[in-house]
Each structure stands twice: as C-alpha cells, then as structure tokens.
Amino acid sequence: MSGPAAPPSVAPVPAVPTNALVEYLLRLGDDRLVLGHRVSEWCGHGPILEEDIALSNVSLDLLGQATMLLRLAGDAEGRGRNEDALAYFREVVEFRNCQLVELPKGDFAFTIARQFLFDVYAVVMLDALTGSIHGELAAIAAKSLKEAKYHVRHSGEWMLRLGDGTDESHRRVQKAIDDLWRFTGELFAPDDVDRAMQAAGIGPDLAALRPTWESLVRDVVSRATLTIPNDLPRVASTRGGRTGSHTEYLGHMLAEMQIIARSHPGATW
Amino acid sequence: MASSVDGRQFVGDQAATIPGDAQWPVWEVFTQGAQGAPHEHAGSLHAVNAEQALQNARDVYARRGGVVSLWVIPTGAITASSPSDSGPLFDPGSDKPYRHPQFYNVPRGVRGV
After folding, report:
1. Sheet holding B69-74, edge to edge
2. CB-CB: which of B5, B46, B60 is closest to A108?
3. How would residue A1 be classed by pLDDT, with cut points 50, 70 and 90?
4. Does B4 sit within 8 Å of A47, measured CB to CB?
5. Number of alpha carbons in the 13 Å side-chain half-sphere of residue B4
6. Which domains does chain A have, with CATH numbers?
7. How distant, in Å, are the alpha carbons of A182, A191, A247, B10, B17 from that of A235?
C-alpha cells in the first residue's frame, strides 16, 4: 500500500460492498473513540500538570480522528447517522473497536504501555492508509499520521523512563506489557472485511503490517530493559472486538460516555 | 511520592530545583512564531530531561499552533543580573545618547535596519 500519493478527495468511492466499507471505517473510528475516552479519564488525575495536559492532548487528538472517521462511516452507511449518533446511540455489541483499547486505564504504567502498543499500530496503519484509493480516508490518514507520530514519541519516551527507571516503575510497566500482549493479536488478524478492503485498494494487507509493528515495539521494549512475553498473542476465532465481542469493561465505559446524550436527546450547549 | 511517577529524584543536568519544591527540575521555554523571528520566552515547566522538556513545551505552549520552533533551557543554566545590580548596570546607559547609533543617515533602500 505504500508508495502512491493520496489521490485528491474528489476520487470516487471505489465499488465495494457498502457493509464492508462501513464496518472498516467503524473499526478505525471506534478504536480512537474508545481509547480517546479512556485517556480522557486521566484529565485532572495526571501525575504532574504537564503530563495531565499531554494526555488530554492525546485524548483530544484521538477524539478528533474518531469524529472524522465516524462521520465518513455514517456517510458511507447512508442511513442518516452522523458521528454523534454513532458514538452515543449504538449498543456495546455494535462497537467495532479492538479489545486492547477498551480495557480500564489501570495505573499510569498500564496506560502508557497500552498507548505505546496502540500508537505504533496507529503509525503503521495510518501510514499504509495514506496510500488508500479512497480519497477521503487517505486524507484523514495523512492528517492523523502527524498526530500519531507525536503520540508514539510521547509514549515511547515514557516506556524508556518507566522501564529503565526504578524497580517499582519497571515492575509495573513489565506487568502491563505481560497483561496487554495477548490483546495485540487482534490488531493484525485480517477477516473478510479486511480482505475486501485490501482487494479494493482501500486498506493494507493487515497481516503484513505486523512484522513492522513488532520490530518497532521490540526495539523500544528492549531499550527499556523490558521483555515481551513468550506466549503468542491470542487471536480469537470470533475476531473479538472487531465483530462486536467485547470485554465486560466496554459496557460500563459506554454507560458513562453515553448517558448525557441519551438522557437529553438533541441537547445543545 | 506525589511529585514523580516512579519516585525518582532527578538532580544534575543544570536544571534548578526550587528549594522545598519536590517537583521535577524547571526549564524555561522559548517559542519562535515564524522562520527568522526571534525565540521569545513563553514560560516555564517541569521535566526530567531535555526530551521530556521539549515534549512538555510542545503540549503546554505550542498545542494551539503558531509555533515553528522551540527551545528549552534548564533554568539553572541562566545567569541573571540581580536587582541590586541594576544601578551600576543600567543607569549609566540612560544619559548617553551618543551611544545610540542615531546620528547616521541610513541610505534609502537599506532594509532590516
């Protein structure tokens, strides 16, 4: 997918099954919506003021990306649902984010480790998507890629500091890596939706991205004096979050995220 | 330890730690608004090293745009004049107009003067 420059956004949307395209855009958008909300839970609780602001910036970047992607998904769906309708009025089984991003924020080490694993994934994925023949998606990817490159610099620096820091910081971030690793299998396991997007030139070969992702991750992890667990990442046969199978945590998160919009439909401020 | 994520105390570099302040060292931030423009003091922040200072400066002072370059400098690396020196240092300059290059005729067409 790398190579060709993004075509102008007036390029016609390629002929692919609408459902597959909508599913694909929901996966990209929901990853960012859910992770953005998780990171926002640090607002006012960051370890120091500067880091509180940094995490809030990351959260807002992710929510901005989610807004663009869910709007595009709503347009592709053609049923009149905009990004707010998709964010606030879908049930948990309709969400298409990977399970990695829905886990509770945990301690700071867990938040950073999860963010780092996702940020590297985002850079690899968005870089590939800038070559999509879907002009609007390629444009969103190009805009988001700049943000993702900063995010990984931020979380990567913290990985080094925590891993190569005190005994306690090392222990905590190593435990986070151990707990999170099995959730990374889902990121690179293509299904029919991914294959349809790849065939149409809209999305990359998902499985082919994993070696790039893993070498980038392993480089930082080893420099942080941390280790990757030996057990292979779990790849659920049901595809997990991508097909609506979520951990128990997402429902609780959505209840909090959606309650205002559902209690006051159409409210503005 | 409320001051740092992992409880370490960072000393050294040339960053200053305010006495009684258990937080990380202080850095001064300078932002440049356009190519060729001077870097101007924007404020200060806490960080454990230069990379983190640069990142925090980006997040605190450049996140709303309008910045093309950042400098971060450990506060302790700055040597400042003291208020008690202001008489000897600055007062003599105020009544010596011949030290101002204002008696020259600048040729027309010269820019940047």
Report:
1. B39-46, B26-32, B69-74
2. B5
3. very low
4. yes
5. 21
6. 18-263 (1.20.1260.10)
7. 8, 12, 14, 42, 49
Is residue B30 classed exposed, middle or buried when 0-12, 13-18 and 19+ CB atoms within 10 A define those classes? middle
Chosen from A161, A167, A172 to mutate, greatest number of chain B CBs within 10 A: A161
What is the longest distance spanned by two Cα atoms in chain B?
A: 64
pLDDT digits (tens, 9 = 90+) for A49-66: 999 999 999 999 999 999
DSSP structure string for A48-94: SHHHHHHHHHHHHHHHHHHHHHHHHHHHHHTSS--HHHHHHS--GGG
- Take residue B23 and report the two structure tokens written for it: 């937080």
Pull the structure tokens for residue B52. Answer: 């983190």
Look up residue A248 and give its two tokens.
């128990």
Give the amino acid at A92. V
Q: Is B17 on the interface with A (CB under 8 A)?
A: no
Higher-scoring residue by pLDDT: A11, B52: B52
B48 backbone dihedrals φ, ψ, rounded to 5°: -90, -25
Class of the CATH domain delimited by B1-83: alpha beta
